[in-house]
Design brief:
5 helices, about 15% helix, alpha+beta, Thiol Ester Dehydrase, Chain A, 11 strands
């Protein structure tokens, strides 16, 4: 049985072209995929803990490896002039792994709606659960620069019969009227990925770098909500703002709302909320 995305609001299909092909790798039933990522110094902050951009990169790697196993990898899609693009992501962390840990990531697809495909993640260190994430992906038409429907073979699968990693839909992020911090960036060659636009982990890095080093040094990440609104290509001037909000109820994390936009025409590129605990 095909499973649908949990929210019609966040998964409403937009205008999309149709992509379909047969894959010899496809099975009628899908199992979760498990990846083991030994964390390296390059994955760590100055505190030795896993950084949010590095975590996003590892989640993308695990999703890509599972897509390869299912016969719908980036390579498979690129042959059709298509690619997978991350549209939304929500991450909740119980604690941050350190660079000496091996991060075990369990991931599985959990639904389709129009051009959108839902994917879940659980991550552990040894037997300890350290976090979870849910994500929404879209197949992107490289020529038309617009969404395309996922491969037909995906709609013929039986998804794993298990609850989503996070119980709630990915919430929207509202742009504050008065930001606390603003920085500008320009898209460089090494910011670009196979799709010739900025990779999702780079957006996260820009959002965080808008905050002062002293602020980042004093806080530990506990969560991330991310919405991609428009692609960003080479030489684009990007402005990023950050607004810090108090945590609210006792023990609630601090919230920071991030807005990344085209510095020349104010087009929103991405919206994010990061959540933090004081070290």
């Amino acid at each position: 049985m095909q499973r649908r995305c949990r929210s019609s609001k966040t998964c409403s299909p937009s205008s999309a072209t149709i992509l379909s092909w047969d894959s010899p790798h496809m099975n009628a039933s899908v199992s979760a995929y498990t990846a083991h990522a030994p964390l390296q110094p390059r994955d760590a902050t100055l505190h030795g803990t896993l950084s949010l951009p590095a975590l996003c990169a590892h989640l993308q790697d695990a999703a890509g490896a599972h897509a390869t196993q299912l016969g719908v990898s980036q390579t498979d899609l690129l042959a059709q002039n298509q690619s997978w693009v991350l549209a939304r992501l929500q991450v909740e962390l119980d604690r941050l792994p350190t660079w000496r840990d091996t991060l075990t990531i369990e991931t599985w697809p959990s639904g389709l709606s129009g051009p959108f495909a839902q994917r879940e993640f659980l991550f552990r260190v040894d037997a300890e659960a350290v976090g979870r994430a849910t994500s929404t992906w879209v197949v992107f038409d490289q020529t038309r620069r617009r969404p395309a429907r996922p491969p037909q073979v995906l709609s013929e699968l039986t998804w794993p019969d298990r609850p989503p990693a996070l119980s709630a839909d990915i919430p929207e992020v509202e742009v504050p009227a008065q930001p606390d911090y603003t920085r500008r960036f320009r898209v460089r060659f090494h910011d670009l990925d196979l799709n010739r636009h900025v990779n999702n982990a780079r957006y996260v890095a820009w959002a965080l770098e808008t905050l002062p080093i002293g602020w980042l040094d004093a806080h530990a990440a506990r969560g991330l909500t991310l919405h991609f609104k428009s692609e960003t290509t080479a030489n684009t001037p990007v402005a990023a703002t950050a607004t810090v909000f108090a945590g609210g109820p006792e023990h609630a994390p601090l919230r920071v709302v991030h807005h990344l936009y085209h510095a020349d025409d104010d087009t929103t590129l991405a919206l994010a909320e990061t959540r933090w605990a004081v070290r």
